[in-house]
UniProtKB/TrEMBL annotation:
PROSITE patterns: G_ENGB
Protein name (database record): Probable GTP-binding protein EngB
Function comment: Necessary for normal cell division and for the maintenance of normal septation.
Family: Belongs to the TRAFAC class TrmE-Era-EngA-EngB-Septin-like GTPase superfamily. EngB GTPase family.
Entry cofactors: Mg(2+)
Amino acid sequence: MEVHNVEMVMSAVRPSQYPTDNLPEIALIGRSNVGKSSLTNTLINRKAFARTSSQPGKTQTLNFYKVEDQVFFVDVPGYGYAKVSKSAREQFQVMIGEYLAKREVLKGVIQLVDARHAPSKEDIEMYQWLSSDEMGGLPVLVVATKADKIARGRWNKSESTIKKALQFKDQTTDFEIFSSETKYGKDIVWEWIEARMLD
Ligand code: GDP
């Protein structure tokens, strides 16, 4: 999709605050610093639209970006801060649980992992949950970010390490390697999103 128009429409912590436009939604999720804002900005051709790395302790909200009046990108706050309190973690789980498991217009989830490392425990738990029966076959795209930081000859190895650790389910999950530096993978990620919009 050629993107000209993006609006940050709203932040939500509960279902009554979600948009009512009835447009398809694509959620983006990953641990803090994995490159989620960079991926979002690459997809929408902006340098700094999505804010980078929110700070631990800051209010964690779902942020809805309306793209070309056709689809919402839903920025799910980064997980994996060791230091957040138990109650903050529980609030986060309720918020994303309500959204990801129940939202009817949610057409797919892009889960980001770092191409350089084996997925973390939280990455694995998140993937297991996203691909569980509870989610009813929700399409997931695993995007391995920061691919420019590893030699191209190691991309296959990175992919197999990630898939093995996640116990990757080919039935409902796709995989793409990506770099916001070089834009590698941008078209494929867009193709995946556009296909989900038609599902
Ligand atoms: P977020 O917390 O997941 O939104 O992560 P950001 O998008 O803010 O990225 C975190 C850091 O990683 C920033 O310093 C980015 O410049 C850097 N980064 C993100 N994506 C890439 C990438 O594809 N390649 C490289 N080399 N750096 C990246």
